[in-house]
Each structure stands twice: as structure tokens, then as C-alpha cells.
Write a structure and sequence with these properties.
single chain, Glutaredoxin, 2 domains, five-stranded antiparallel sheet, five-stranded mixed sheet, 5 helices, globular
Length: 293
Amino acid sequence: MAACALLFAAAASITATAQVSSYGDKAAGENTGDQLPVVLQKVGVAQHLNGQLPLDAAFVDETGKPVHLGDYFGSKPAVVSLVYYTCPLLCSEELDGLTSALEMVKLTPGKDFQIVVMSIDPTDTPAEAAKKKAFYLKRYGRPETADGWHFLTGQKPAIDAVTEAVGFGYVQVPGPDGRLTQFAHASSIELATPEGRMAQYYLGVEYSPKDMLLGLIDASGNKIGSPVANILTYCYHYDPQTNKHSLIVARVVQFGGMVTMAGLGGFIFLMFRRDLNLGREHDLTGRKEKGNG
């Protein structure tokens, strides 16, 4: 049975190379040390701040209606999410994180901003898009905002035009049946200005409501944000029968856990030491005051 693994990697620079490659261009290969699997070295998010989205790109919305990306721009900023609707794990985590953050943002979809979710899989259907919209709209708990949520499907030329403009790199990989039905990709959401320019990137699967609120306010005024540290969360399918990448995944996850534990341990030690020093100073001060008295 195929599996999808989450792993975290900090890039050495702010931007990471993003490209779309055919499956024939990437071999599984062998990995040594704690390097990323070869396939993930071709996946990333390059932050194309102030880049223009292709507003003429043609899609189909969740009702089956032909639309253009520009239909959702013009007067309001937009949250953009690139996923695919049959993703076995990470895409749902991303949409969960987005929905949870928006629940605490005191702005209204459709009135103050648009939410544009686009599938990178050209085989996804409007019916699958409609199912996703219904699920997340129910989870959001504000059915009156339905007109502000848009779940799109499209063909590869339109998908590629958007992903290249965003800087969203992904590669197609085999599913459990061996066919190319899944995708290796990183997780991020983006904010775009009313003119359709990239204003801010949020990486990972959990997003700060405060940052999103401030980002939407800035984007509504056509302000472009700053690059963020490229700490990526990947969704990657691998075959446990070959198991070529399971060790590398475990090592990276373990390393992240060790870093976290070391950081927490250092913080606790410093706080304990500070409290100990404060206690000593308090004792000395009290003794001096008694001696003077």
C-alpha cells in the first residue's frame, strides 16, 4: 500500500527552485545521508512576490461552469491554495489549516476577500471540487459565505500557467496501482492583490490568523509583502515494497524532533537559571536590609 509522508526541510536561501518535470525526467535513485529524496529536490515554492497571475487562464468551477481566474479579482484580494482533491494526506491538512485560521479572521469571504482553491490534477472533476467545497464550507460554519469560496478544476496548460506564476513546483508520481495518479508537492497558501499580483506566501499547513488578517489588509491596498523563510512541508508518495526513501524520511523527521526538544530543553534551562539567580539576589538583598536594620 502506498503512503504519503510529511517531512520538513529548511532551505539555505529564501527562494527555492520550482519546476514541473515529467516522471521520465526523475529517477527514484539512491539517497545517502540526510539529503532529500531525489524527487523532492525538484519540488518547492519560489516566492514570486509582485508576480502577475494569468487572469485569462480558463477553468471550471465546482458547479461545472466555465470561468476565468480573473473572475475572482478586480476589487478584492484573494487567498490562493494549490492542491489536488484526491490527495491522500497533505492537501486536506493545508485546507484544514486554512479553514481554522479563517475562522478567527474577522473578515468575510465574498465580501472582503475571495478564496480560490485550484487543483493541480487535470483529471480532478467538478463533482470532486463540489464535494470539497461543501466539506470545508460546513467546517467553516458560515454557509452565507458560499459565494466567496471557489474550487476550480482545469486542464494542464491553465494549471501550468498558474503554478509557474505562483512559483509552485510539483512532480507527478505513481499511486498505489503504479499509475501516475499522485503528486509530490510542497504545502503553501498565497495572498494575491485585487490586481492578481502575488502579495504574500505562507508555508506549511498551519497559518497565523493575525498574520493572515494583516496580509489580507495589506493585499487589499495592493501592498506587496516580504519573503518568508522557506521551511517547506512536503507531500510525497513512496512505495514501501522498494522502501528506498523511508529511512531518509524517518531521519529528517527525527532530526526535526531532536531540534525541537533541544530548543525546549535549552529554554527551560535558561529560565531555571534566571529564576535561580533572581532568588539568590533576593536573599542577598533581604540579608543586607536586615543587617542595616
